[in-house]
Design goal:
The protein is α+β, with helices and mostly antiparallel strands and 213 residues long. It is built from 4 helices and 11 strands; from the N terminus they run E-E-H-E-E-E-E-H-E-E-E-H-E-E-H. The chain has a single domain, classed as Nucleoside Triphosphate Pyrophosphohydrolase (Alpha-Beta Complex). The chain is 17% helix and 39% strand. Strand 10 and strand 11 form a beta hairpin. Helix 3 runs antiparallel to helix 4. It is globular, with a radius of gyration of 17 Å. The model has no long low-confidence stretch (mean pLDDT 93).
């Protein structure tokens, strides 16, 4: 089923509507929603989602806790539905902080030209990993990256780290540990993951302001 999204110029002036796939192929600017969840586990951690091995783009890679495109007419706040759809959780009782927009420009080998204004949000959620109910059609697991280990990994002082996860093997969900390198994460030009680790640490320590760029 086609998904219509609103498209914009580079200054976020509305241009109209377009089918999502066509917008990507044409390199049209559009809105997406990113929700990150962090917790005090492991001295402070940031949660990533494990994308389904059947995903059209970047299958089996680690990415934002919950993310998606805004359909035509939706606001950034409407994007919280992605947490319900992908992780099986309601977020209405969480204190969600808006970090503002980040801009991502990337061209993929499959012909897609990403031109996204990403609305980034962050919230603290202390439920255990096995209390999430991901939709295996989209998400094959959730993984805690300890903030201190994430600093070392994305800062370049370590090549691998070991993280706890709750994942699907095609039949069952299970808890486990996995050794990760930077190659396990969806590639991004900017230091997005390192920035979100810093913002997560600030949120957990009750510091303000929080921001993204």
């Amino acid at each position: 089923m086609s998904e219509l999204i609103d498209i914009f110029d580079a200054n976020l002036k509305p241009k109209g509507k377009m089918e999502r796939k066509e917008a990507h192929l044409a390199g049209e600017w559009h809105h997406t929603f990113h929700l990150w969840l962090c917790s005090s586990r492991h001295g402070g951690s940031l949660m990533f989602q494990l994308r389904s091995p059947e995903a059209k783009n970047f299958p089996g890679m680690l990415d934002v806790t919950a993310a998606g495109h805004l359909l035509t007419g939706e606001t950034l706040e409407d994007g919280t539905r992605e947490a319900q759809e992908e992780l099986g959780i309601a977020v209405k009782n969480l204190e969600i902080e808006s970090l503002g927009y980040r801009v991502e420009v990337a061209d993929q080998e499959n012909g897609q030209r990403n031109r996204e204004y990403q609305g980034v949000f962050l919230a603290r959620d202390e439920r255990s990993l096995d209390h999430y109910e991901p939709d295996p059609n989209e998400v094959y697991g959730v993984i805690d990256v300890p903030i201190s280990d994430g600093y070392a990994l994305f800062g370049g002082s370590r090549e691998t780290i070991v993280c706890n996860y709750f994942a699907y093997d095609g039949d069952n969900w299970f808890l486990g540990e996995k050794e990760l390198s930077r190659q396990h994460f969806l590639p991004r030009i900017q230091q997005y993951y390192l920035t979100m680790l810093i913002m997560s640490e600030r949120l957990l320590e009750g510091k303000a302001p929080l921001s993204i760029s």
